[in-house]
Structures are given as C-alpha cells and as structure tokens.
Specification:
Layout: E1 10-18, E2 24-33, H1 42-47, E3 56-61, E4 83-93, H2 103-122, H3 126-140, H4 150-173, H5 177-190, H6 195-207, H7 211-224, H8 229-243
Antiparallel strand pairs: 1-2, 1-4, 3-4
Amino acid sequence: GGPRPLPGQEVSVKVLGALEDGGLVERDPRLIFVPGHGDVVQALELGVPTMQPGEVSFFLAAFPYAYGRPGSREPDVPPEAPLLFEVTLLEVRDGPDPQPLPPAVRLRLGSQRRERGNFHFARGDFAAALRSYRLSLRALDGPATAPPGPEEEEELREQRVKCLNNCAAAELKLGRAEEALAACEAALRISPDNGRALLRRGQLLAEQGRDAEAALDLRRALELDPASKVIHTELSRLAKRQSRPSST
C-alpha cells in the first residue's frame, strides 16, 4: 500500500536475481537507490517505479536491461544473459541529495554512484558513466549534518579526486578534451600530487602544443612513479618533438 515512487525519491528494495537455470547471482536484502540516477540495472530502474511499498514483483529482464552483452564478473553473470529479478519494495522516501546528510551517508552514496559509473564505463556507455560520476560528486559535496572527522574528511577528499579523474577519462572517451582538462585541474586543486591527474593533464597539454607546461606535469608524475613506462614514453615523445628544427 501507499503511493508509487515519484521522480527524485529514494527507494529501498530487497532483490534476488537468478539466471535461467535457477542459479542465484544477486542477493541484496536492502538495496538503496534513486530511480533515474543510473545506480542499478535498467530492469530495476524501470520496474521499481511501477511498484507500491510492500509489493513483490518479478521482472524478467532481457540482457540489455540486465548486465548487457558482456555480462559481469561481480556478480557472476555470463554474456548476454537474461535475468529473473524478485523485487520487494520496502520503503519510499524523499531523495537524499538536497538534505543535510551525515558524512558516512555522503561517502556511501558517493561510492555507490562512482562504482555504478565504473560499471557503465567498462561497458562502453561513457555518457551514463559520466552521469554517475557527476552524481557521485554531488553526493560527496552535499550539505552535511555535522562536520566530518579527520578520517572521513580524508576519505571524502580521496573519493572526490577519484571521481574527477574518472570524469576526465569519460570526457576523453566522449571526445571532449577541454572538459577532460578541466576535470584534471579540479582534481589537482584538491590533490596537487595526484599522479593520474598529472599524467593526463600533461598528455592533454601536449596535445594542445603547450609543451613546457606538459613537461612540468609529466616530470612531476615521473617523480611520483619512476617506473611508469607510460610517463617515460610521453616524455620521450615530447623531447623528440621539441628537438625538431622549426620550419622557416
């Protein structure tokens, strides 16, 4: 009984997911998500908003609405596998984003959405991945009910940097170099010695012909990771380009 979930509301569901042969691949006694945010497979995104609290539903999902053509390692789902989901809608409540949240809840939401972004990225859906990463940042940067402790503050900082690096990777896959560069710079404002952001910004600056700035980033990245073959290759390519005689 009760109203169905409205756009932007958060739901809690109990989920069981099984293969056609009956093998159980997914069991979550309390999965929390906001439909439309891309945090779960499409079968749940589309199906749960049709339910009322307390209702139990079965959704037979063709593979595009489950784990896609490649399947999944975690959970262990074969390629192109349809799934049968048993879903119980436990609770519907207002979405968490506009509300002040404890730091631990912000971290949970941020991690959940970043991991969902990684899921989309691995399957080549870079626009969906970027959407999930941005939602993760929104959760991490949202209002808090209390100041985070030192450990929570450090974890929030690390998660922001991971999300921004992931945003940069997704922007590059979408062919948006300027947006990728902006994401790298945002990550470096939080963590100036983040090797991943330094390397990617160095590569992007080199592509723009800003060789001196690129060299600074790449040399600093090499100091942090002297064994990186990628950084050595980038610096070597940059040095060769700089050593060529200019045309007159």
